[in-house]
Amino acid sequence: MSGFLAGLCVAVLPLLAAGFWLGRRTARPENLGGLGTPVEHATFETLHTASLAAPPLRAGLTGETARKSARRLRTLLGTDALCLTDQDTVLAWDGLGEHHRTEIMERLGSPLETGRGEAFRLKCDEPDCSLRWAVVAPLTVDDRVHGALVACAPRESAVLVRAAGEVARWVSVQLELADLDQSRTRLIEAEIKALRAQISPHFIFNSLAVIASFVRTDPERARELLLEFADFTRYSFRRHGDFTTLADELHAIDHYLALVRARFGDRLSVTLQIAPEVLPVALPFLCLQPLVENAVKHGLEGKTDKSHISITAQDAGAEALVVIEDNGTGMDPDRLRRILAGEVSPSGGIGLSNVDDRLRQVYGDEYGLVIETALGAGMKITARLPKYQPGVHSAGPLPRQ
Fold it and tell me: What's the CA gap between 373 and 175, in Å, rounded?
């Protein structure tokens, strides 16, 4: 889908450039100042103007985004006035003749219903108004009409009709990309909800049971563990932001491990080696804790001897390298492959497929989990996290209650 949209943008922009150049050339020739041929100059101006109009539209079609992009879109068309509408109202008007708002909305019924553009004569009693024609080009996403781009001019023009249609197609592409971004955000939110649902009820029950066991024998220890439990659950079920920092995620892991160690005592040992310079790195929320929970599960279940888990976070230039390793029972590699592919129940690997999917959605397929394991050989999970990724920003530290 993204490749098709990119191709469509590439196909549309040269047409916009040609129309833009013809309009500017006819209206007032400019001194190009040695910037190349007129066509090259027009292409540059068109691409530059389009690049300025695109960012607001990538946030969807709202009053604010329409106001920010309308002037750029009017520049692309070189017309006297331009407005952007949704299904019910004019979101933004740029240029002359704003008193035509009501008339235009009354005439948009058919284009908004059918998705087909049209041109019509404007009625105006204002002696100083030069607008006589309006060209309507619907804005569609997935065959659904979201609104319209309306260009107004002093005279009827077949060139304007075609140019408005091309600009509307380009705007529709930006809105479709915005829709994809929103879908991606909703998917990530759904993945987080699913991951929260996977937080083991047995872990919660066992943690509370351990805390209860200390209430009479060691009240201060019970109080400390209760605070650890409260901090861990508050972090796990927080509602602000899709991303966190490595420091906050490791802090939550520390709360989790304190509860696990209280239950298993010296059967579990944990080693942490964390490079301070990677602590501010932003990453998807609840991305590492499930990997540690998986290590605890496979490190302790089915074993009577001591288990060890090591957690390292290293600075690797443009990336942070996080490795979680246990000496537990391991897993059959073929079963692991099927779990990550979603072919079997993830009961044998808590959160692994969820975390792998989210890393790939945020950073790309090359940033999925790298897992080394075999039956009886433990498990080593490596996650590479770019230090900078567009759109990946921590929402800030969790507010204290």
Answer: 44
